[in-house]
Amino acid sequence: MALDEFGLIRRYFQRVPSAGTDTGAGAGVPVRLGIGDDAALLDLPPGESLAVTTDTLVAGRHFPLTATAFDIGWKALAVNLSDLAAMGSRPQGVTLALTLPEADPDWLAGLSAGFFTLADAEGVPLIGGDTTRGPLSLTVTALGSVPPALALRRDGARPGDLICVSGTLGDAGLGLALALDAVPAGVANAVTGLSAAARDHALARLHRPSPRLALGLALRGIATAAMDVSDGLLQDLGHLLAASAGTGGPLGARLQLEHLPLSSALTALAGSGDAGREQMLAWALAVGDDYELLFTLPPAAEKRLPALADALALPLACIGRVTEAPGLDLRWHGQVLDVALPGGYRHFS
Ligand SMILES: [Mg+2]
Description:
Elements: H1 5-12, E1 19-21, E2 31-33, E3 41-42, E4 49-58, H2 69-86, E5 90-100, H3 105-122, E6 126-133, E7 137-146, E8 162-166, H4 171-179, H5 188-192, H6 196-207, H7 213-218, E9 225-228, H8 233-244, E10 252-256, H9 264-270, H10 274-286, E11 293-297, H11 305-312, E12 316-323, E13 327-332, E14 335-336
The structure holds magnesium ion.
């Protein structure tokens, strides 16, 4: 490597105040000691628990080899902040462990720019890290804080609760098909007919997801359960229902799929016949990477959603209910959905 490990860190990643400074993270919680010592020191607000999550992104597996350095840096951080959002926790700091085959200064500058563009937007300091030589991968560990009684968990959903999601679903699935040049033949014409703006939107949703941190904080004390949509709505909903089952036996859900929040790019596909509708639903239901929040609400809380959506400038949609009957009952305008979706979702219960 042209630069040694320490040179790399300093040049591209050591840009936060290193000691005794309130970096502006979260609610003004100081990073007592940041990058540069053997470990960082964080002060948590009294009475709050530390929320910790970590995710590794491997080149070719978690992002296409064609992804830009900027997008890789952004996404490595975004997926971790999304997990903090799903817990209703406030991010306080992140660490980055970087494995690189070589030290390409332009590539590292791009990675750093993507990472810090999101970190700065969310006020999250980088408080430590590591670099090693090897196949490209990034591991981010995100640290947040939340009063334990207010943490959003997966295990609190109850029969009758509303099932809600933020933003729109399926755009990342379309984006991945575009990025891999793997648009299914049945919708190839419809996708080709999309505007450049619609295609760019889908690719941006794949490469630069928005962690829903403000929503996670706003759902404290309101949502009965929450998680982020990383593996596809149906699979993730299955995880939430399984966690919430408790001693009362398995839970299920009835979804009214016409209420799925979809971007104009996705709904444009529905106009291209049955194949288009099925692909639209497959991307929205069975492909991950949207990083929206999936959450459940007691029925009485539904009336609070419009004001919350307005305040956050983020669409919030209720798409169904938790049921005592196990399994997923999927309806499209009242009709039982009869399409094959990948993922074996019917087998989770
Ligand atoms: Mg998650």
